[in-house]
Amino acid sequence: MQFDETDKKLLLFLQQDAKQTTKELSYKLGLSVTAVYERVKKLENNGVISKYVAILNKTKIDRNFIILCHVKLIQHKKEYVMQFEKEVMNLNEVIECFHVSGDYDYILKICVKDMEDYRNFMLTKLTTLQHIASTHSSFTISEVKNTTEITL
Questions:
Q1: DSSP string covering 66-133, please?
Q2: Does residue 128 contact residue 77 with C-beta atoms inside 8 Å?
């Protein structure tokens, strides 16, 4: 899908605050409310906007201990990959999972309360998954940048 400058601005405004009304967006963009509504619907229908979410403050919900965990499977067989991916989807502590190239097969972003919570997660959940050969964990010291905005 090709985006004109108005689409790009609209998408940026929605990424910054998706709760803005069509009227507020129309004022910012210099368009009618109907024109903005139709553009938003077009972006939704084409799958450019896939969903609207609330982003929680991890500190306020006591889940600000973030870990990047590299996972290597025993073998990179299709059945092992498919099973791991299915099982990792059920781990609530895993907030992102990437299938990657390199020395490890996956990188998991894990969000828990503290080190004890992470240890419990490792012992009772992650290491019980089949076909994991090894893991390597890195603990975040501070969050330098965390955004959901994508500039077009």
A1: EEEEEEEES---HHHHHHHHHHHTT-TTEEEEEE-SSS-SEEEEEEESSHHHHHHHHHHTGGGSTTEE
A2: no
Confidence of residue 123 (pLDDT cuts 50, 70, 90): very high
Q: How far apart are CA 119 and CA 89, in angstroms?
A: 19
Q: Are 118 and 41 in contact (CB under 8 A)?
A: no
Q: What CA–CA distance (Å, rounded) separates 41 from 45?
A: 6
Helix axes 22-29 and 5-16, enclosed angle (nearest 10): 140
pLDDT score for 60? 97
Residues 6+ apart with CB under 8 A from 66: 58, 109, 110, 111, 139, 140, 143
Residue 26's pLDDT is 98
User: Degrees (nearest 5) of the Cα angle 82, 77, 69?
Assistant: 65
User: Side-chain half-sphere of 75: how many Cα atoms within 13 Å?
Assistant: 4
